[in-house]
Amino acid sequence: MSSTPDEGGEPVGDVGAERILTTRLDAIADLVRRYGVNWCRKYSLWPLPFGTACCAIEYMAALSSIFDIARFGAELVRFSPRQSDLMIVAGTINYKLGPCLKRIYDQMCEPKYVISMGACACSGGFYDNYATIQGIDHIIPVDVFIPGCPPRPDAMLNAVVKLQEMIDTEPQRKPRQPERERERTR
Ligand code: SF4
Description:
Elements: E1 2-3, E2 13-15, E3 18-20, H1 25-42, E4 47-51, H2 55-63, E5 86-90, H3 98-107, E6 113-117, H4 119-123, E7 144-146, H5 153-169, H6 177-185
Parallel strand pairs: 4-5, 5-6, 6-7
Antiparallel strand pairs: 1-2, 2-3
Bound molecules: iron/sulfur cluster (SF4).
């Protein structure tokens, strides 16, 4: 039998013919979270496109075989909020449409993410008027903003990669919606 002191959760040696590994429970939980749950989440994003204007056409191009967003595991578009975890807002959102956007977002299951695509969704764009919401982050939390008018499909792919990097490092239980809204309005 040989053994070494248990230092910082490293392997301590073997007993007889059987090797024994010791580690900390939180280290295992961290591995499962990082390489299990988060890995699955980031490569199986199901988008719900909320397309209202020209940016939605660019999003369609990102889905096409030329840009092939399927390479990133985010091609399974669903138009039901209950089957989606990634809302893509592509286009102008006015005050009349705002409550619909908020309601659909609220109906999506946690954990859920939002990409704001294009100048109009991010900041109202050149529609600086009384009818247009000057950025959808006034009503829902946004994870990734894509600038441009319109942004190219490549920018959409880049946003998905950025989102995947965020998902990779997030805690297994993402703060729920009310907590995120408190952070947003702080
Ligand atoms: S950002 Fe430009 S391309 Fe996109 S919806 Fe607005 S006007 Fe259209």
